[in-house]
Write a structure and sequence with these properties.
The complex is a heterotrimer of chains A (233), B (476) and C (468). Chain B has helices at residues 2-15, 18-70, 86-92, 138-143, 148-164, 167-174, 176-181, 187-217, 224-249, 254-283, 289-305, 307-317, 332-368, 373-385, 389-415, 422-427, 441-469, and strands at 97-98, 118-119. Chain B is an all-alpha fold. Chain B has a domain at 2-33 and 148-282 and 444-468. Chain B is elongated, with a radius of gyration of 31 Å. Chain C is mainly alpha-helical. Chain C has helices spanning 2-15, 17-60, 67-73, 128-144, 149-154, 156-162, 167-199, 208-235, 239-268, 274-286, 297-310, 322-359, 365-376, 380-408, 436-442, 444-464, and strands at residues 75-78, 98-101. Chain C has a two-stranded antiparallel sheet with strand order 1-2. Chain C starts with a helix and ends with a helix. Classes of the chains: A alpha/beta (233), B mainly alpha (476), C mainly alpha (468). Chains in contact: A-B, B-C.
Chain lengths: 233, 476, 468
């Protein structure tokens, strides 16, 4: 779903991302681990064409991100670290609006199904977003992704600031999406959650993926050891 | 996308109370402004009516007296006041020289609080004896009126700025922009649609508020000029929306965008007009009026010193007035009118200097008017209302011409030594004001419209550049 | 602690591009305005002297003439320009600058500057008052709108409080910091104006004490604005909202309130139109004595009364010429008619003024506006006092001329002429503007209103910042 080829982003002398080569297939959850400034968010921003690469290419669903950004966005969904929606609109209305501008017209039943699938409680459907917690907003974000029938989900620190219960629920949701064949790229600090849900894990530092594993190749303790070693050397 | 933007933009605008507040503000200010303009117009109409009634009454009186005199009856009036001589008529029974406010007069007070539109020149008034100034409290002149021109030129842009300054920045600051940008829509199209929608709603509210204000004040909306008024207002709003679009696309923070837009407002609405007016006044300075008074005084003294020769000069210039009856019949009036004519001839060049300078100022202003759309709209609204400087200058020219015509008509009778009779009444000149023609508004509107489009395009260009730099969506 | 905070605030202000740009703009505008203003001022007052002398010369050299002919010939008086008009022109440009004084009628001052300019001049001029009244408050907004919100947005407010600075001290420091750039600009401006004015020759009307009062007025005005801008900043959650609210206040008090006040005043206490006013005067004059109509009933009554008084049978036996006497009595009647008409006008104006005073409590601009032009001697009251002085002089002149006629001509004499030297004995017209004390007395309500604005805005600021 995602193929990057020597993707590089430089800000003057500073290299934020250096020759990144990623290949994430449908049904995979790829977790990018790393400290702040390692290049995780840069990767996601490049894939969203929020910024443009200095060199290299990125393909989403075999479409070039730089040349046809709007085309690629038909297949992806993105949940930023702090997902913000329209506070005076209800959950249903936000879902309707965002699906609508993406070109999907949905009836009320379908939207309710998506919200339910995303784990939002029934009584919150018609409440205005301003009363929602971060976890609830993220569920609406997932519903937007579901409604869009996104083949790729880009997540930037989705679990930071969530309480353990909400974080656990969120992990379950992602697994569920994986089952459906969605490719997921998630940038996170949360080693525990990454180990739990990821199919692949990359440890990033200085704009380079230093180590890459399949998640079931190693235990949580080993992962943590690797992570700390990478950070310290 | 458009239908979704349409539905949700409306929902958002109603839920955050923007639309109700905006409607209320616009309606109140438009209605109050129209009321004020109409108050002034009605006052002027009343004044003109009372003058015309006064003339009718005095004419009826004159005809009655003439009738009695012609029938040989005795009249109780002092001999000077009997209207059987041309000079008595010219002095005591002036015509009403008036400029009726037009149907759109209420939209701009213009210069109508400085200049009078109803005068009654008598034969002994020379050009500088006729006072065209209106009586208005100078504090009111200083503060200006809360009329539609003020509301549209000053306040409407501010409402538009408050209504649209943070369309993009608010999304960015709240964080919703990232989610939007991950959708398959282009952001400037999205902002453009939002702008268009806001412009659409504002236009609807403006038109309704204007119609309501006119109806409340009892002014007809079925006039071509009313359509022009709406056209001017909408194009002017569009200008501010396009500026706001541009500033939005620069991607500044809300506070910065607001500051930039207010800066533009100060520039276009306050600084450019006052600078142009100041420069026009410096290039075409008004000669000292005190000096003019001095000159006229000295001249009058000179003329009165050669009083005996004045009449000879006058008759040399006007051979048509010389009668066969001989010169010995020339009275006080003959001499008076002759010396007046002489003073006038001498002073006219000096006097017309003021009009020349004013015309120069006006021409200069017209040349630079394109520096600010506020100036264009101000000019057009004043023109539509018929209360601009040019309109009053036009009235003044026509009134002075009539005054001269009136005087000459009676002087001719004076020299032909004929008494004034009832028959002569019908031949007395009458004044009708010919208003200036109203053309070119459409052209000016089109130019403004093109400016708006250019601003919009430069906004898109700027945004694309920022997209490439990667600073458009992320916080910088 | 306060000192540290002030320094930090000032650093932030002076490093801000918007402040640099707008302060520079204000300084450039002020310089342009002062240069234009003072050169206009110089030429106007020079012309004033020339005109005054030239007119007097015309009067003095009338030669042998009948005094009543001279009365009709009349004379002009010119309005002197006040020194402080350099800083605030007030209503000057809407008022005439010369008054024609003649027999039988009181004329309005003629030739206002506004009448000779395009409608664009109504938009405003690049004059010092425009900058003092409108632009500097805007500068205050630009400096101060985010004073508190930037701390909230940057999260530094919590940090500041954890360091133990009290809200009161923080507020005082911010107030001083925001106020000081404006204070410096204002002080520099008034100092420059003072130096220019005191260095100009024949600036008799300039007084430092008036300049100082004007300076104080503006300092208070800016203090009010600073306090309100800070108050808004303290109450607002975000800088954008603080800025928009502060600007709304500015527009409301400087642009909308004066116009609304003017329209309300006009609707409640309308001025007569020019025609109405003159028609009423004519009607009132008709019903009374006229020097040119000795056949009227009023004239006969006067004649009878006079004959009885002097115990003679015919007016030819009176010790003075009756025609001169009746001319003077007619003049007195007409002057009375004018006095009544103008008193009514004045009453209407003072009603309007009261409307403005009531509105002063919704806009600090209004009391400042009136106080400023009051002190500068360019308000309507000053114009009125000049017009009244001119009218007194006119009445005095008419008496001077009629007395000559009455005492020197004989009954039935038609060709009487006064000596060529006689005209020089007429005292010269002189007019001095009001003293500062008198002005301040007149402006009491406005002074109180401005003080109240200062106090209440300070109070609100300190109360609202108590619990941020």
């Amino acid at each position: 779903m995602i193929v990057t080829n020597n993707l590089t982003k430089k800000y003057g002398d500073f290299t934020a991302l250096n020759n990144l080569n990623l290949n994430i297939k449908s049904g995979e959850i790829y977790c990018l681990l790393g400290a702040n400034g390692a290049g995780k968010s840069t990767t996601i921003n490049l894939l969203l064409n929020f910024i443009q690469p200095t060199s290299g290419t990125a393909l989403i669903n075999n479409i070039n991100v730089i040349k046809q950004p709007l085309e690629t966005k038909k297949y992806l969904a993105y949940i930023p670290e702090n997902l913000m929606l329209y506070p005076t609109l209800t959950a249903l209305e936000n879902l309707d609006y965002f699906s609508g501008i993406a070109g999907k017209t949905l009836d009320k039943n379908a939207m309710e199904t998506f919200l339910q699938e995303a784990g939002l409680q029934q009584d919150a459907f018609n409440k205005k977003i301003k009363a929602f917690s971060k976890g609830m907003r993220q569920k609406v974000g997932i519903a937007i992704a579901l409604a869009k029938d996104a083949k790729l989900l880009l997540l930037d620190e989705p679990t930071s600031g969530l309480d353990p219960k909400a974080s656990n629920e969120f992990g379950a949701l992602l697994k569920n999406l994986k089952q459906k064949g969605v490719a997921i790229l998630m940038a996170t600090h949360d080693i525990f959650r990454a180990k739990e849900i990821a199919t692949h894990i990359g440890i990033m530092k200085n704009g380079v993926i230093q180590h890459q594993f399949e998640a079931n190749q190693l235990s949580l303790a080993e992962l943590e050891k690797h992570y700390l070693e990478t950070m310290n050397y | 996308m458009f239908s979704y933007n349409f539905t949700y933009e409306l929902k958002l605008l109603i839920r955050n109370r923007w639309l109700p507040i905006l409607s209320l503000l616009l309606l109140i200010s438009f209605a109050f402004a129209t009321y004020n303009g109409n108050y002034r117009t009605q006052k002027r109409i009343k004044q003109i009516a009372s003058i015309e009634a006064k003339v009718l009454e005095s004419d009826a009186n004159m005809l009655k007296l003439l009738d009695s005199v012609e029938k040989g009856m005795e009249v109780k009036t002092s001999s000077r006041r009997i209207p059987n001589t041309p000079m008595a008529v010219g002095y005591q029974h002036p015509r009403a020289v008036t400029m009726h406010p037009n149907g759109m007069s209420a939209i701009a007070i213009g210069q109508s609080d400085i200049f009078s539109d109803a005068i009654m020149p008598v034969t002994i008034d020379d050009d500088f004896g006729i006072d065209f100034t209106e009586m208005t409290s100078s504090v009111q002149l200083l503060f200006g009126s809360f009329d539609l021109t003020f509301v549209i030129i000053y306040l409407l842009p501010l409402l538009i700025i408050a209504f649209s300054y943070n369309i993009l920045s608010a999304e960015k600051e709240r964080g919703a922009l990232r989610l939007l940008a991950s959708q398959p829509v282009s952001i400037y199209k999205w902002i453009f649609q939002k702008m268009v929608l806001r412009f659409f709603w504002l236009s609807i509210i403006t038109i309704i508020a204007l119609i309501l204000s006119f109806v409340i004040s009892g002014i007809s909306i079925f006039q071509t000029q009313f359509i022009w008024l709406i056209g001017l207002t909408l194009v002017y709003s569009l200008f501010w929306f396009s500026l706001s679009f541009l500033i939005n696309l620069t991607g500044s923070s809300s506070a910065k965008s607001a500051a930039y837009l207010i800066g533009l407002w100060v520039f276009f609405v306050l600084l450019v007009p006052s600078a142009i007016s100041q420069i026009a006044h410096n290039i075409y300075p008004t000669p000292s009026r005190n000096k003019m008074v001095n000159t006229i005084r000295t001249l009058k003294v000179d003329v009165s010193k050669k009083q005996d020769k004045v009449l000879d000069h006058y008759l040399r210039d006007h051979p048509e007035l010389v009668t066969e009856k001989g010169n010995e019949n020339y009275s006080f009036w003959h001499k008076y009118m002759a010396s007046m004519d002489m003073v006038e001839q001498e002073i006219n060049p000096l006097f017309s200097l003021y009009d020349e300078q004013l015309k120069g100022q006006q021409a200069y202003v017209n040349k630079w008017i394109w520096l600010s759309p506020s100036l264009v709209i101000n000019k057009e609204m004043n023109r539509i209302s018929g209360n601009s400087t040019t309109d009053y200058q036009n009235f003044k020219t026509q009134a002075l011409a009539f005054s001269k015509h009136w005087r000459n008509h009676l002087i001719f009778m004076l020299y032909s030594q004929q008494p004034f009779t009832t028959k002569d009444y019908d031949t007395l000149p009458k004044f009708t004001y010919k208003p200036l023609e109203l053309n070119g508004i459409g052209k000016h509107l089109a130019i403004e419209f093109i400016c708006c489009i250019l601003i919009g395009i430069s906004g898109v260009y700027l945004f694309k550049k920022r997209l490439q730099q990667g600073v458009a969506i992320l916080n910088n | 602690m306060i000192r540290k905070t002030i320094i930090k605030e000032l650093k932030e202000i002076f490093r801000d591009g918007r402040f640099k740009f707008s302060a520079l703009l204000v300084i450039v505008l002020i310089s342009v305005a002062i240069v234009i203003g003072s050169s206009q001022y110089k030429s106007t007052s020079k012309q004033y002297d020339i005109s005054q002398n030239s007119e007097r010369e015309v009067w003095d050299n009338q030669g042998e003439k009948n005094p009543h002919s001279a009365a009709h010939f009349g004379t002009y008086v010119f309005k002197p320009k006040n020194a402080l008009a350099l800083l605030d022109q007030g209503v000057d440009k809407f008022e005439g600058i010369s008054i024609f004084l003649e027999a039988h009628s009181r004329n309005e001052a003629q030739y206002s500057a506004a009448g000779d300019q395009t409608e664009l001049s109504r938009f405003g001029e690049l004059s010092p008052e425009f900058i003092l009244l409108f632009v500097i408050p805007l500068l205050i907004i630009i400096i101060g709108y985010n004073s508190f919100t930037k701390e909230k947005e940057g999260g530094t407010d919590v940090l500041l409080k954890s360091q133990g600075i009290s809200n009161l001290k923080l507020t005082i420091a911010k107030l001083i910091a925001v106020y000081s750039p404006v204070f410096i600009i204002c002080t520099a401006l008034f100092l420059t104006a003072g130096i220019i004015l005191s260095s100009l020759a024949n600036y008799g009307s300039f007084s430092w004490s008036k300049l100082l009062s004007l300076y104080t007025t503006y300092l208070l005005y800016y203090l009010v604005f600073t306090q309100i801008v800070l108050l808004i900043s303290a109450l607002a959650k975000r800088s954008g909202i603080a800025l928009v609210s502060a600007l709304s206040f500015w527009i409301l008090s400087c642009f909308i309130a004066p116009k609304v006040a003017a329209n309300i005043a006009e609707v409640k206490y309308p001025y007569p139109t020019k025609q109405e006013f003159t028609n009423n005067l004519e009607d009132a004059k008709k019903g009374g004595l006229s020097g040119h109509n000795p056949w009227s009933k009023e004239a006969k009554d006067l004649e009878d009364k006079l004959l009885k008084e002097h115990n003679v049978n015919h007016i030819s036996e009176l010790p003075f010429n009756f025609s001169g006497y009746i001319m003077q009595k007619g003049e007195e009647h007409e002057a009375e008619v004018y006095f009544k008409a103008y008193s009514k006008l004045k009453e209407q104006f003072s009603n309007q003024t009261n409307t403005y005073k009531t509105m002063a409590f919704i806009s600090p601009f209004l009391p400042t506006r009136f106080l400023s032009m009051g002190i500068a001697g360019t308000d309507y009251e000053s114009h009125m006092s000049f017009a009244e002085a001119a009218e007194d002089y006119r009445i005095q002149t008419q008496k001077f001329l009629n007395d000559n006629n009455m005492n020197n001509s004989k009954y039935g004499e038609r060709g009487y002429k006064a000596d060529a030297d006689f005209w020089k004995t007429l005292p010269k017209f002189s007019y001095a503007s009001s003293s500062l004390d008198a002005i301040l007395q007149l402006q009491k309500t406005n002074i109180v209103a401005l003080m109240l604005w200062t106090l209440i805005s300070a109070l609100l600021l300190f109360i609202s910042t108590k619990k941020i």
